[in-house]
Every structure is written in structure tokens, then in C-alpha cells.
Amino acid sequence: MSEAKRTIRVGVYICHCGHNIGAVVDCKAVADYAANLPNVTIARDYKYMCSDPGQEMVQQDIKEFQLDRVVVASCSPLLHEHTFREALAHGGLNPFYLQMVNIREHDSWVHTDKDAATEKAKDLVRAAVRRVVLHKPLERRQVGINPNVLVVGGGIAGIHAALTLANAGKKVILVEREPTIGGHMAKFDKTFPTMDCAACILTPKMSQVRNHPNITLWTLSEVTKVEGYMGNYKVTVKRWPRYILEDACIGCQECIDACVFKEGKTEDAFNEGLAKRKPIYIPFPQAVPQTVVIDPAACIQLKTGRCKKTCVEACGERKAIRFDMQETDQVVDVGSIIIATGYKTFDAARMPDLGYGIYPNVYTALEIERLVNASGPTAGEVVLRDGSKPQSVGIIHCVGSRDARTNPHCSRVCCMYSLKLAHLIKEHTGAEVFNFYIDMRTPGKGFEEFYQKLLHEGVHMIRGKVAEVTDWALDPTEEGKLILRVEDTLAGFVRRIPVDMVVLSTGLEPQEDANEVRRLFNISCSPGGFFLERHPKLAPVSTFSDGVFLAGCCQGPKDIPDTVAQAGAAAAEALALIDANVQELEPNTAFIVQEECSGCKTCIPMCPYSAISFKEDLKVAYINEALCKGCGTCVAACPSGTIKQNLFEDEEIYEEIKGVLNYA
Amino acid sequence: MPEDLVQLSSGTDEGPFEPKIVAFFCNWCTYLAADLAGTSRFKYAPNIRVIRVMCSGRIDPQFILDAFAKGADGVLIGGCHPGDCHYQEGNYKTYRRVQVLKHMLRDLGIEEDRFRLEWISAAEGDRVRSVVNDMVQKVRALGPLKIQVPQETFSEEVPA
């Protein structure tokens, strides 16, 4: 008997989710209630609906009771809607004959009153049953996947993702806004806990990026516009002028020597402002591309047009220096995007009690990284501002992390890099080193062992949050020193510890422009401002925009091994997308019942994707399904109710409203 | 209550009045925020019934009127913050529709606190809790929705 000729039969399944739902919602009572609702043929409760036996139960019931529709009341549809749709498909039903009811995130987990929670579950189930009866069989649209990938950000995450994809034979465009790739890792001296030299393990990968035939590297470039959808993105990249022809420059750096500035006058950002550079410079010796760059804010020729241009003379026949370069916009077509935009370190000046920017010998950890680095401003000498070696150093953990005044999150890497710096400072200077920590967090391979090693090296560990860094000496031994006031919570009293140098272990924060970047790629952020993954455990590199993946610290603080692992995962996700060749899109697009359209054109300006056009010959509007993203804004605007949205038709929503309100 | 007022909601006589609030949450921001409230185990009043739509721009003002007509004591709309819409600008359309609708609701004698539009991002699970709790408290104080228009004609179109 065809569906139209008989009453539609609905199966309802209430999931206990172990105790997650069952402890608050009386699932048996909800199932018993549902069994008596109109159209419901069978209603059951079960411990874990998402388990194989749970899904098989649905499939078996579809056959045995000739079910036409299925309602599953369990967790959020964003988690398991796909699972149950597939279960329906395997059971021989159209997958969109499913309606999920969220009785976990929206009910059992947020309510304590068991009766009220059970009532709520009944209301929601009733609404779903009334709605699902109206569901129509739908088909997913298929789209082709452009095999090219855009990687945004050239730190270790972006580099690793780009190389993985390129090695798999995919074309990659790597966009970096700095003049060189390498990111934060290029600034580090050693990496914990193995004490590998950061440059030694990073720079070969940077060179590989430069030489790889499948990677197009665009430095001094920023993504300004993203259009399209999964598999077919059109991305506009703004490329700032380098004023140097990358192909012509051989990296001899003679122009830097020849510059009319005999000494550098501009703060060297790569060295955290601890050194000066000239207007024409190379960020660091192993920079990729191995090409000089001109800073338009410092170059006399670019500012005034009246320079002797000694650099051009030095460049000679190669003619690599071009002062007439302009910024350009370039448009690329890609199928997937990996965002690896990284982090910024906490601005220590936001905590004036700790003296950064007040006392010259208070440094951030990143500044110390440059000081201990052999290619840094002091050629690896850890010295105070006056050039002398410190006798004692205090390292303060959790600056801008785990603090209600700044960031509640733990930045994950600070304990370990503080220990690393303690080791390096001791090694370089022989100074007495004090680490001030709240909790010592060393959860990683070889991390705890490293901590134990440091303890044996004689680094002092004081458990306590430093209240203040001051130069106000109370006795002659403190004269000329920086005094750390701290409650030693293990010894149980307040101490004053005089040191020569203070290091602030600043935490990791989202990039300054994370919000703009997030909007550009249409993704969300977590409470701390880092980008939000699709699922914290099961889809950690995916986002809510299909075809856009996350890698590295833009998603949250992590160390280098985790960043590389995540970058590999993001690359694998992109590869899976590419190699599938086609992907299915949700069918929740809008369509116009043409016979009923009055041709008023109200809908046309509603669509942000220009998916609606007007057919002049028929005097009706028409929706291009390929362009429609399924928001439904036009549906709500249509005065005659002629536009319908699949899965969200007016009638379905009205039934849901009546259902939750138990309206006859 | 005065005789010409019709009580639409099914407030019971037993115990204090518990309002029923119908919420329309957009899939990308507020629905996710409510999920986050769940995973964070934030506790809030159980009076709310969420209906998921892809975008707050999908919410036809008629849905809100219909919810009131069918017995809701309050209606809450949750969408993405301005500039954050997953569909670029659907929430702006919602905002404009809501401004017009608010005048209409006032003319119908529906108190302001019964209808609310809130921007709640996917990161703001705690805001779901505070908004729902605050709204439930205010609507509870107002009591069941009473309205002058006879129920049966409420959702019908007025002939030209």
C-alpha cells in the first residue's frame, strides 16, 4: 500500500545515553507517552541508540512495523543526525524521514528537576512526531571538488599541512602575511623536552616549501575575501609589494650593506625589538623566500622619493629592486582551505604589577628566546640591558594564563618552555634560577622526565603566584635588584626574592585580528576567542564551514608536536575531500513553487548569494540551487508563501510550534 | 480576569504559574550555544522549548504570532551577533522584522517582556542560561498570556 493511502507510521526511540539522559529524564515514561501519540506505531527506550544494536533496532523496526518515519530523541542533532540518517538509509527509508530531538544538551544536562525535564522531553518528542509526518523524501546534491588547497599562515602548522598535501601531489597555495614563513617557531632557540635546535628542524621544511613544485608561496599576502562553498571556493588575496623582484633577487644582501642608513634605526620585530634593522633587510638568515624586503615606512626613497638609491647601484645588473611595485589583488580557485593563523603572546604590559615596560630587566619569554639564540641580537649571550651577566633570574609562570583578570585558560606550553629557558639560562650564565609556578603541568611525552632533570640541575621551584615585581629594596642585599614578592604556598609564608633578571612566561592568545579572520572564513570561535572546531573530540580540525579546516594554535594553545599532528590531520581531511572527488551537500535549500509566484521580487534582494533571479518571460522568481546555501531568509520574506525550504517548510515548523505547546 | 480577555496558555491551577517559552534558535550560533550550555552543565529553567532553524532570518514573524496564539507565554529568538551571521546578513533581516513585529505585539496588548531577540554566539553558553532564566522570571511575573483578540480568529488573515 502506498504511503499516501494509509496513515503514516512513525517509530519513536528514546535514548538513555547511559546515565547522561536516563538519570534526569524518565525515558520509559517518555516512550510510553509517545506510544499513544497519533501516527506512532512503535515507541521504545534504549540505553545507547547510537550503538550498533540501537541502530539495528531501528532498521529492524522499519521492516517489521513498516515504519515511514523515525524520531530519535537523544543528543544534539549536530552530533548524531548523520548517524541516524545513515541508519534510516540502510533500513530502506529516505534518510530525511528522520527528526532528532535534543534531550541531552538541551534537557537532561541543563535541568535538575526530573519531572520538568521529563515533561520537556515529552513536549519535544510530540513536536518531532507532528513534524516528521510532513517530511518529504529528499536527495543530497553533489558537488565537484577543486583539488587545489589554500593554506593560510606559514608557521609550522601551515608549513607542515602544505608539505603533506604537496607531497600527495596536490597543488597548494600558501599565504603568509609576514615577509617570510616560519612563524613563531623560527624565533625559538631550542624546543622542549628534547632540546632540538628549532632552526635545525624547521629550516629544512621551510626550504622544502620554497623548492616544492606543487607549492605556490605568497608572502606579504593576506586573504581579503572568500566566496563559494565546499569544494569550490573563490579566494581573493591581497599581495603587498616587497619592492624586490623575488625571481631576480639572489639573496646576496649587498643592497643591505649599501643602504644609506649605516646603522639600523627600525625596531626589528623578528628579534622582539631587541635589535634594530635597516629599511632594506632580510628578517633572519634562513628566511624563506631568501629575498630581501623593503619596509615602506622606513625607506627614504619610498617615503620621499629623494634617496641616492645606493641599494639599486649595489644590485646592479640584476635589477631586483623595484620601487614602483604596487599592491595587487589576486583571485584563486580552491576546493578546501586550511587555516593555520597561529597565536600571539600575551602583552605583559597588561599586568603592570609584574613590571614589564617599567623595569628594563623584566623580559618576556619570547625576548629571552632571542637572547639565548646564537643568531639573536646578542649572539646567544644572556645579558642584562647594561651588557652584564645576571647572577640570578626569576621566571614567572602563568602570565596572562589561568588568571581571572586576563585569560582563564591554561596556555599549555608555558610550564615546559619556562623549564627549558631555566635550563638554557643556567647553561649560558650559571645564574641561580627560580621558577615561580601555580601548578607544574608537564603532561607530554618526556615532559615530566625533563622536569625531574631540571630539579636535579638545581633550578629552584617555588609554588606561588608572584604578587609584585619591585625595585624597592628593604635591606642592603636587595639594593639594585628586582624583588619578587610571592607567597610560597608549600612553605607557607611570604617571601621576597631579589634577582637581576625577571622573565615573564606569557601565555598564548588568539591573534589580534582573529575575529576578522573568523568572519572572513565564516567560522565561529570558542569562549576564549580561539577558532571553534566542529567537535572537540571527534572533529577537532573541521569547522562548521565544510571544506575549511583548522591547524595549530589558531584553534587553541598547543606545543609543536601537537601542532604538527593537527596540521597533518587537517591535510588528511582536505585530501579525503579531494580524493572523494564529489561531496554531498545538505538538501536544505529553498525553492519556488513557480505556479504560485506573483513575481513581486521581494525575495531577490534578500539573498546574500544572489541565488535568486527573475525570469522575465514567466514573470516569476527562480532560485539557483547550486548557489543557495539554505538560510531560508527569502522563505520568511515571501509574502505569498511560495518559497519553501527543504527540511524547514512552513508547515513543518507550524506543526513543531503546535507540538511543543500541546495545541490540538 | 476581565471577561473580554482570553487566556491562551494552559497555565494550571496547581502550584505557581510556570510559563511556556518557545524559542527559535539559529543552527550556527545560538543552537550551538545551547549545546555548549549542555556540555558545560549550566543549569537553567526548564520552561523553554527550542525549535531549530538554519538561520534566524528563516523566522517568519508569523511563527511568533502563531506561537502566542497556540499558547506560548513568551517567545525567544536567538541569532548570531551582528557581523557573525553564517549566512552573512540573515540576522540583520531578523532584526528589522522584529522591530516591526514589536509594534504589532504592543498593539495586540502583548507585554514587551514576552518577546525577546538575543544575539548569542556559539561561545556564549552562559548567556543562554542567563537569558532563559531572566526571561522565565519576567514572564512568570507577568502571568499567563491574556489577549483581547478571540483565539479562533487570531491566526487568520484579515480580508482586504
Task: Describe the fold and architecture.
In chain A, strands 10-7-6-18-29 form a 5-stranded parallel sheet, with helices on one face. Chain A has a 5-stranded parallel sheet with strand order 20-27-21-22-23. The two termini of chain A are 29 Å apart. In chain A, helix 2 packs across helix 3 (77-90), helix 6 packs across helix 7 and helix 12 runs parallel beside helix 13. By secondary structure, chain A is of the alpha/beta class. Chain A has 17 helices and 34 strands. Helices cover 27% and strands 23% of the residues of chain A. In chain B, 34% of the residues lie in helices and 17% in strands. Chain B has one domain: Rossmann fold (3-Layer(aba) Sandwich). Chain B has helices spanning 30-39, 61-69, 90-107, 125-142; strands at 6-7, 21-26, 48-53, 74-79, 115-119, 146-147. In chain B, the strands form 2 sheets. Chain B has a 4-stranded parallel sheet, sandwiched between helices. In chain B, helix 1 (30-39) links the parallel strand 2 and strand 3. Chains A and B meet through helix 4, helix 5, helix 16 and helix 17 of A and helix 1, strand 3, helix 2 and helix 3 of B.
